[in-house]
């Protein structure tokens, strides 16, 4: 067995030299972002949303780093994520945002987890399970103030105050979710805040939570008792109309596996959708959409055109993608840096001016999707997170 085989089998991780892409995660920056959000939350408890494998950074690494920073409450989307978080945070409060799947009460109780109840059926089932357990088990109540996805309607929520069912379990949190808090002037923000306050008044004594990352920075300061940042923790900008107050957490590099010259009028990539207008130097890197890099970042047209498409930093220079992002490979026009690159070099796909927000914009999507698509094929390196 080679040393490389032994390392893969022993650690289950991909060594740097065996990976086409290198993912760098700064846990110190993650902790610093949580502290900055806490300091902006007006004294409200600051939780952390760690769904989607902690936005691609790894639940098993991100949750302990956030615990050391002082976070005590976590939110995930699925029960399986909650069990992973519980394994590394035995004393934390953990909520499952997507609600109570039928028959999962025993699993919640076994791991001391809290469902976010968003319908009358879920409330009835959790109340019945609590009665059977002989204990007022804790859960959150989700009120829909405008998203129209999950949650009780405002009218349903207002009717809860007089119902005996709330005596069978402990409503530990009353929560809702902003539709567009990143749009600071969106009138929906004020309407949602007003609706949520009305429900809170009808259900007194329950800690309340409305603000996500962007909600923390709204002028109305709708912090209530607990805020639930997610995207901003991982370096995304919660205030898109202003400078980003967060530190970058994620960096991504791709390794050059081949360099070639392409002559004028030759095409690059599947279906020949990108054409060289002059002799161009093309680098192929070992990253593609199977690694989670979006195919929508593909470059179509001709070299030299200004395209909204993917880009890499090559020897510090911005170099545009050339052609279609394929399953395992991306081709980049590195002509402007041709004398500075060689086979085996790494190029930056996320980092520096290529923030997660900018990468998302160039792919016609959002930074959230860029982060949560980060795949297991990357070699991962973690910095900090201790103490």
TrEMBL record:
This is Alanine racemase. The keyword Isomerase applies. Its EC number is 5.1.1.1. It comes from the Bacteria. Belongs to the alanine racemase family. The modification N6-(pyridoxal phosphate)lysine is found at residue 51. PANTHER family: ALANINE RACEMASE, ALANINE RACEMASE, CATABOLIC-RELATED. Keywords: Isomerase, Pyridoxal phosphate. One of its GO terms (biological process) is D-alanine biosynthetic process. Gene3D superfamilies: Alanine racemase (3.20.20.10), Lyase, Ornithine Decarboxylase, Chain A, domain 1 (2.40.37.10). The active site is at 51 (proton acceptor), 270 (proton acceptor). Residues 249-383 form the Alanine racemase C-terminal domain. One of its GO terms (molecular function) is pyridoxal phosphate binding. Substrate binds at residues 149, 327. It catalyses: L-alanine = D-alanine. It holds the Pfam family Ala_racemase_N. It comes from Microvirga subterranea. Its cofactor is pyridoxal 5'-phosphate. InterPro entries: Ala_racemase (IPR000821), Ala_racemase/Decarboxylase_C (IPR009006), Ala_racemase_C (IPR011079), Ala_racemase_N (IPR001608), PLP-binding_barrel (IPR029066). The keyword NAD does not apply. Catalyzes the interconversion of L-alanine and D-alanine. May also act on other amino acids. NCBIfam families: alr. Pathway: Amino-acid biosynthesis; D-alanine biosynthesis; D-alanine from L-alanine: step 1/1.
